[in-house]
């Protein structure tokens, strides 16, 4: 009896093992088949593209990148190797190579994206908090602004800012001026900081202190040191301005152009305005959503401790909100960076616009697409990596407290 | 009454010194802006440009003598939208009254005196209400919404194609693009979402890579890329610009739909799968009749939001030379005769976009509330 049972169990074991083996083989066979089909499809696609290009007499290669561009880009800088084989950051000219034209486009895209990320985060947080204001007018004004921007296309906002606002600014001869800012059809001119220290050791030491403080303010873990860094960040520029190592260069408008300061072209101004207002509305919605998602008990506990509303918002609500919104902010930053590609509608030379010019001039549109796609992928990865780093850091701080 | 409003304003406008200060700054500024805008709209603006160019704005460069084809497409769209609406909101008599008012306002605002246009408008409205009533009162008809929408889309293509698909334009093009994209992306997105949690790691990898790549590149680039790539790949098929644009939008938005559906799939408790497995259902049946219906229910509001996103990005087809609503407006402004009407045309475009967008947002919010009530 016992032996019979044991024999049966052994049989069952064998049968089960055989079945498992069969299943495993089937699983791996399917895996291989799927991979094979995928590779086959990609290969077919590549062959079809190659044939199609050959029919049009185009050869798929990236050698065109080294050719001289032969076209101009309205604004932007690129990397160039100077005579002393030291890379420098120069304005793009038509005798530079096509690869450098791509770099110009990427630099322009990053320029707008970084400025827009900073400005829209500030504006969006203000709008989001404004939607929860105790003041009825402010609350509703913020609500309707956000609602209007979110329910209309970004492209129409962009062309409106460009054709109906920026191009209707006064011409430079009668430009509006406030506190050294010149606003005109030809662009915005802002005061710029100019380095006057030359290469004196004292000035360079101050500059180095500033850079160290800048890094320290973000990554220093000990709180008192971080505060010291932040104080230095304010104090060092003040000393530099007072001792004349740095000077503020104010733009001066003449009859046809403005000189001095930094200038923002009308295209960049319109793109920046449109993207900042658009993203700020989405960020406001994220901020409001996360404030609403906080337990009501937080408000009530803070009220029962006798804190007024502003302290509640600043010290109780916003610190908790910023700990949870960062991933959503990251998604918004990525979509903001992608939205800069709309610059082509108003002629801002961002990456996509430069690509369009290159594709027209050289006919290498498919190779260009590969470069553009990889550039956007890398930009997205950088943003999500930075946001992920900040998020982990914030979460750790929250746990320490 | 006065005491009540005083009390209200003390609470809501002058609660604290800071609030009072804000109120005193913001209210006059807003009033001044509104006054300026209204004064401009009533006194200075020359609105006659809108009725004059209404046809271009609505159907772009589609030939005027073929406008009846566009009207039939509008009627089909109205019937489909009505049917979709009946799914969630049962038709009630007060809706009809409200709808009639909206239509009267539309007819009056456009100032059309063409009898055939008014007749077509009325037909579309009747079909809209008919579709709405059908799905709200006849439960059996709800099963036919998906086939009906596919048949409707094919019918629209068949009716509108003869004068040449490259002539499609205006607001109708934006709406058609939105409809086609949002309907076609749904099955593809669901497949991708299931693929992302497949048993086979190769399928998971392929779907994840597709979704992540599409989500990190700009839509305008994808549309342009498909537009230049398709003639190279399939020279014998020779798709029109409109179809290529729709394919580009579909390829891009499938990834977004997949992410929404995936979030819905994650919201379905594991116990559902386990219970279904213990009943001996096959994996396919579990996914189709247990998991998917519950997941879709959760993601309907974000999917409606996605429709708004598609509609708002429809103007990007300018990159492949199509004349959508925004481009039609710019085309009118390019006419030197109308060069000084910038603000009038842009106001009209903004108001129309805002109205359509608000309706979609409103539906999404209502749906969210409706579904939240159901799941309590």
Protein traits:
heterodimer, A: 401 residues, alpha+beta, MetI-like fold, 2 domains, four-stranded antiparallel sheet, 11 helices, 10 strands, globular, B: 376 residues, mainly alpha, 3 domains
Classify the fold: give the CATH topology of the largest domain in chain A. Answer: MetI-like fold
Identify the overall geometry of chain A.
Answer: globular
Radius of gyration of chain B (CA) equals: 24 Å
In the CATH hierarchy, the third-tier topology of the largest domain in chain B is known as MetI-like fold
Which percent range fits the helix content of chain A? 55-70%
Characterise this structure:
The complex is a heterodimer of chains A (401) and B (376). Chain A folds into 2 domains: 1-60; 77-168 and 265-400, MetI-like (MetI-like fold), CATH 1.10.3720. Helices cover 67% and strands 9% of the residues of chain A. Chain A has helices at 2-55, 98-130, 136-150, 154-165, 201-219, 223-243, 266-293, 296-304, 309-339, 351-362, 365-400; strands spanning 77-81, 87-91, 176-178, 181-184, 187-190, 192-195, 246-249, 252-253, 258-259, 262-264. Chain A has a 4-stranded antiparallel beta sheet. Chain A has a two-stranded antiparallel sheet with strand order 1-2. Chain A has a two-stranded antiparallel sheet with strand order 6-7. The longest helix of chain A is centred in the N-terminal third of the chain and has 54 residues, at 2-55. Chain A starts with a helix and ends with a helix. The model of chain A has no long low-confidence stretch (mean pLDDT 84). Chain B is mainly α and 376 residues long. Chain B folds into 3 domains: 2-44; 52-62 and 170-376, MetI-like fold (Orthogonal Bundle); 64-162, no CATH class. In chain B, 79% of the residues lie in helices and 1% in strands. Chain B has helices at residues 2-12, 17-44, 49-52, 54-59, 67-88, 93-110, 115-137, 145-160, 170-196, 201-216, 219-233, 241-267, 270-278, 283-313, 325-334, 342-374, and one strand at 323-324. In chain B, helix 10 (201-216) packs across helix 12. Chain B starts with a helix and ends with a helix.
């Amino acid at each position: 009896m016992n032996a019979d049972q044991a024999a049966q169990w052994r049989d069952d074991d064998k049968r089960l093992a055989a079945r498992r083996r069969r299943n495993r083989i089937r699983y791996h066979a399917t895996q291989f088949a799927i991979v094979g089909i995928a590779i086959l499809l990609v290969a077919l696609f590549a062959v079809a593209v190659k044939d199609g290009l050959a029919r049009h007499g185009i050869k798929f290669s990236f050698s065109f990148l080294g050719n001289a561009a032969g076209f101009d880009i309205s604004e932007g800088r690129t990397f160039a190797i100077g005579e002393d084989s030291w890379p420098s950051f120069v304005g793009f000219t038509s005798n530079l190579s096509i690869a450098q034209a791509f770099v110009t486009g990427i630099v322009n895209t990053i320029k707008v994206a970084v400025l827009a990320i900073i400005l829209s985060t500030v504006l969006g947080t203000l709008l989001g908090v404004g939607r929860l204001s105790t003041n009825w007018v402010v609350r509703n004004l913020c609500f309707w602004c956000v609602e209007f921007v979110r329910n209309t296309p970004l492209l129409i906002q962009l062309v409106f800012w460009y054709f109906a606002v920026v191009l209707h600014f006064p011409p430079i001869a009668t430009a509006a001026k406030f506190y050294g800012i010149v606003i005109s059809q030809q662009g915005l001119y802002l005061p710029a900081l100019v380095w006057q220290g030359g290469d004196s050791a004292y000035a360079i030491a101050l500059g180095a202190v500033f850079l160290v403080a800048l890094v320290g303010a973000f990554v220093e873990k000990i709180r008192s040191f971080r505060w010291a860094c932040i104080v230095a960040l304010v104090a060092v520029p003040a000393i530099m301005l007072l001792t004349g190592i740095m000077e503020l260069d104010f733009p001066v408008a003449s009859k046809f152009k403005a000189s001095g300061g930094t200038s923002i072209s009308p295209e960049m101004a319109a793109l920046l305005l449109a993207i900042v207002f658009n993203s700020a509305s989405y960020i406001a919605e994220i901020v409001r959503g996360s404030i609403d998602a906080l337990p009501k008990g937080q408000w009530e506990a803070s009220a029962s401790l006798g804190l007024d509303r502003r302290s509640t918002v600043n010290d109780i609500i916003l610190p908790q909100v910023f700990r949870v919104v960062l991933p959503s902010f990251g998604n918004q930053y990525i979509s903001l960076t992608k939205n800069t590609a709309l610059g082509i509608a108003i002629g801002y030379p961002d990456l996509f616009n430069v690509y369009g010019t290159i594709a027209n001039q050289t006919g290498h549109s498919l190779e260009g697409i590969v470069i553009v796609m990889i550039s956007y992928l890398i930009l997205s990865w950088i943003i999500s990596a930075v946001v992920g780093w900040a998020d982990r850091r914030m979460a750790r701080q929250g746990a320490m407290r | 009454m006065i005491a009540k409003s005083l009390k209200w304003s003390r609470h809501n406008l002058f609660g604290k010194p800071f609030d009072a200060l804000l109120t005193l700054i913001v209210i006059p500024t807003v009033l001044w802006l509104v006054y300026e805008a209204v004064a401009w709209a009533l006194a200075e603006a020359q609105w006659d440009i809108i009725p004059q160019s209404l046809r271009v704005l609505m159907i772009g460069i589609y030939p005027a003598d073929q406008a009846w084809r566009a009207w039939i497409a509008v009627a089909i769209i109205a019937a489909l939208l009505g049917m979709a609406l009946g799914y969630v909101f049962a038709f009630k008599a007060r809706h009809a009254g409200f709808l009639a008012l909206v239509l009267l306002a539309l007819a009056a605002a456009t100032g059309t005196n063409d009898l055939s246009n008014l007749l077509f408008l009325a037909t579309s409205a009747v079909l809209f209400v008919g579709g709405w009533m059908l799905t709200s009162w006849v439960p059996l008809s709800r099963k036919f919404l998906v086939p009906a929408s596919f048949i409707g889309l094919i019918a629209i293509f068949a009716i509108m194609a003869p004068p040449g698909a490259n002539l499609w334009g205006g607001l109708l093009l934006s709406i058609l693009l939105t409809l086609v994209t949002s309907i076609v992306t749904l099955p593809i997105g669901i497949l991708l979402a299931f693929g992302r949690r497949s048993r086979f790691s190769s399928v998971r990898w392929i779907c994840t890579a597709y979704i992540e790549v599409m989500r990190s590149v700009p839509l305008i680039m994808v549309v342009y890329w498909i537009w230049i790539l398709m003639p190279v790949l399939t020279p014998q098929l020779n798709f029109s610009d409109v179809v290529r644009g729709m394919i580009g939008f579909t390829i891009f938005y499938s990834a977004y739909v997949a992410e929404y559906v995936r979030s819905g799939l994650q919201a379905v408790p594991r116990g559902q799968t386990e219970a279904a497995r213990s009943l001996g259902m096959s994996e396919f049946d579990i996914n189709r009749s247990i998991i998917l219906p519950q997941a879709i229910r959760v993601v309907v509001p974000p999917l409606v939001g996605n429709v708004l996103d598609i509609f708002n990005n429809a103007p990007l087809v300018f990159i492949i030379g199509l004349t959508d609503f925004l481009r039609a407006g710019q085309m009118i402004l390019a006419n030197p005769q109308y060069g000084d009407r910038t603000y009038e045309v842009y106001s009209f475009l903004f108001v129309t976009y805002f109205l359509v967008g608000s309706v979609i947002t409103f539906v999404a919010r209502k749906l969210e509330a409706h579904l939240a009530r159901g799941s309590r």
